[in-house]
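Researcher: Following up on the earlier apo prediction. This time include the ligand. It's nicotinate mononucleotide, with the SMILES given after the sequence.
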Amino acid sequence: MNTLTKPPGSLGRLEELAITIAEMTSDEFPTVTPPGVIVFAADHGVTTEGVSAFPQEVTAQMVKNFLTGGAAINVFSKQISAQLKIVDIGVATDIEGEDLISKKIRNGTANFCQEDAMTKEEAEKAIDIGFTQAEEFIKKGVKCLILGEMGIGNTTTSSAILAAISGKDVQSLVGFGTGIPKEKIVHKQQVIERALKARKPDPSDPIDILVKIGGLEIAAMAGAMLAAASRRVPILVDGFICTVAALIAKLIDSRAANYMIVSHRSVEPGHKTAVQLLEKEPLIDLGLRLGEGSGAAVAHPILQSATLMLKEMATFTSAGVSDKKY
Ligand SMILES: O=C(O)c1ccc[n+]([C@@H]2O[C@H](COP(=O)([O-])O)[C@@H](O)[C@H]2O)c1
Ligand SMILES: Cc1cc2nc[nH]c2cc1C
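Model: Understood. Below is the ligand-bound prediction.
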């Protein structure tokens, strides 16, 4: 790093990032291209409690939008020349589409205020499907894995999971999600508090957390992250829901966190706690709160700059530039 034609440290976090990616990949001159994006979609039974600004059917409608290329993640995936896979892991209604990967485990989770969100078999199956989808991508040559999700109600699920893992007050972890009105925030908070009291997930047991208060797309993202980590492929983590999935992956195997880069800081207030628990620092803060993997896709060119700098810059010797005097 210090032989390249720049004052040492002058490329700031890009220098750290390049070294981190070299360590992750065990490659002195790593590459993060081509990137691959997987969006896992699923519904959440807890939406019946009135915790989202949008109706549940938007999950399926947005999946159709992904398939016809009209969503933000389509635009940004194209921008970074990423392959994009859309996986139905548990959308409440049936969706058809040639390009859809149909891996539906059930028609959305159960309302975790009343019963467990899913069975142990379903949680493990979702992790396994995520793992396999990522593994297939990596076998095809993907060098950086971007994960995204679509699921109306999943900020409630993610806040519940984060409250269970962190032991923090629910109040500090709840946000507006897709944009609920201010007066609905206390209700959302109470729904989560009620669920945690009724379900009592074991904070040290990631499967128990998923079974009691989880989401199918969260389980699948965690599984995909474990696959990428086990193949030494850098993982670009998206916003709040994706970072909570990263915490589940870390609980399953703490080494997985060594392969994660948090792309951006989400507007959701709980994201700060999630990122701290992951012991990471987001690369950018653009005030994003969309999901779909959109923030991670937007940040991918930063990883590209870091790795290309390492690979393509001249050294002081090769360029005949005088090195540092002091
Ligand atoms: O990624 C984030 O930080 C993020 C923050 C807020 C909302 N979202 C997206 O919005 C949906 C969940 O919001 P909600 O209000 O229905 O819980 C889901 O489809 C997420 O992809 C995503
Ligand atoms: C329109 C819309 C698009 C989304 N993408 C991810 N979550 C979303 C939620 C809504 C409501």
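Model: The chain has one domain: 12-318.
Researcher: Noted. I'll compare it with the apo version next.
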